[in-house]
Every structure is written in structure tokens, then in C-alpha cells.
Write a structure and sequence with these properties.
This protein has ten helices and no strands. The chain is mainly alpha-helical. Helix 2 packs across helix 7 (107-115) and helix 6 (86-99) packs antiparallel against helix 10. It is elongated and about 70 Å long. The model has no long low-confidence stretch (mean pLDDT 89).
Length: 207
């Protein structure tokens, strides 16, 4: 979490600093990122960076959480637009992220984060699909999901459904970036996997 001095900055200065931070983390993954490059782009002394953040990891995860928060709000909107249909909302979210219209400026940051995945990155990224996913309940997202579409009977099972869908989604993002798939290829692959999950993997036969 940034220090209070960061939050005390005027909005324009915060924007300049975060743009410089994102530019560097879009260029290289976290472990290769240079604070020197960030402060040069932001036009601030190196010492000022450490008045705002403990280190580059602090800046990275703050930025990732901010991205996640924005995507989380969009995911909530998609759930409402699709009448609580979880699968349609997930598909819409996936397509919106990889399309990232109009200029895909956020994708390099996301790509570096996911291709150099750690448990903490995965945990943070997963938050965009459920604000309470890592808590004991899904109080914030559960009321938005139309349960009649799902073969579940309680929120505990919804938690497992969200874990499965989030894992599949993250892996598809990684496939998109690691194999340099086109948007169309990535969307088709993800849609196929969602369809298998939606309708089940086990064919029922007469006994």
C-alpha cells in the first residue's frame, strides 16, 4: 500500500507518477523493472519515489489492484446487463480485456503480470471477478448472480464455481499472451471451454 504522502499528492501528479510506473511495468516484468526509469519518466527525484512507495513491489501491486478494482466494477456491470448470467458476464469480461479498445494500452502491463505469475499476482488478479472471492462469503457478488442458471444449492458451491471459472479464465489469458494468439483465437478457445463447463463434461447414459 502506498504511503500517505502519495495519497496527499494532487491528482495530476498522482496520474503522472502512476503513468510512469505503468510504463515501466509494461516494458518489463516486476523483477526487471527499474525505479530509475520510473522517476525519470515522472520527472521526480529518486528519493521522492520512496516517500510514496516502500519499493517497486509496493508500486506494482498498488497499480495491479487499481486495475483490478476498475475491472471488478465493469464485471459487476456486465452481470447486471446479462441478467445475472455468470457465463455471459465472464465471456464478456474476457473479450473486453483482451480487446482493451481503443489502443490496448493496458495489455502490456497485464501481459507482464500474468506471464510472470506469482501466488500474490494470481490472488490480486482473481479479485476482478469477485470482490469477496478470497473471503468466507460472496456477499457482494452473490446477489448479482442469477442462481437459476447454475446447478448449485448454496453460496459455498458458488465459491467453488467462481474458483473454477477464475482459474480457467486466468489460464486462457496466459495462453493468449504466451502463444501470441489473435483475439479471435483466444476468444474461441475460451468460449469452447466455458461451453464445456456450462453444459458439463460427463455424458449421462441409460443404465
Amino acid at each position: 500500500m502506498p504511503k500517505q504522502t502519495f495519497f496527499n499528492l494532487p491528482e495530476d501528479k498522482k496520474t503522472i507518477l502512476l503513468d510512469a510506473v505503468e510504463k515501466e511495468f509494461s516494458r518489463v516484468p516486476l523483477f526487471e523493472a527499474s525505479v530509475a526509469n520510473m522517476v525519470q519518466d515522472a520527472g521526480i527525484p529518486r528519493g521522492s519515489f520512496y516517500q510514496y512507495f516502500d519499493n517497486k513491489e509496493d508500486a506494482f501491486f498498488y497499480l495491479l489492484k487499481e486495475h483490478t478494482k476498475q475491472r471488478q466494477e465493469h464485471f459487476t456491470l456486465l452481470l447486471k446487463q446479462h441478467g445475472g448470467d455468470l457465463f455471459k458476464a465472464m465471456a464478456g469480461m474476457f473479450q473486453d480485456i483482451i480487446s482493451d479498445a481503443p489502443d490496448k494500452k493496458n495489455l502490456p502491463f497485464l501481459k507482464n503480470a500474468l506471464l510472470n505469475m506469482t501466488h500474490k499476482v494470481e490472488h490480486t488478479f482473481a479479485g476482478m471477478f469477485s470482490s469477496s472471492m478470497m473471503d468466507d462469503s460472496l456477499d457482494k457478488i452473490s446477489p448479482l448472480i442469477n442462481k437459476k442458471y447454475l446447478n448449485i444449492s448454496e453460496d459455498k458451491e458458488l465459491f467453488y464455481v467462481m474458483q473454477i471459472l477464475t482459474s480457467v479464465t486466468i489460464r486462457n489469458f496466459i495462453e493468449k499472451f504466451s502463444r501470441d494468439l489473435t483475439d479471435e483465437e483466444a476468444i474461441n478457445n475460451y468460449t469452447s471451454e466455458l461451453t464445456l463447463l456450462k453444459y458439463g463434461l460427463y455424458r449421462k447414459t441409460e443404465e
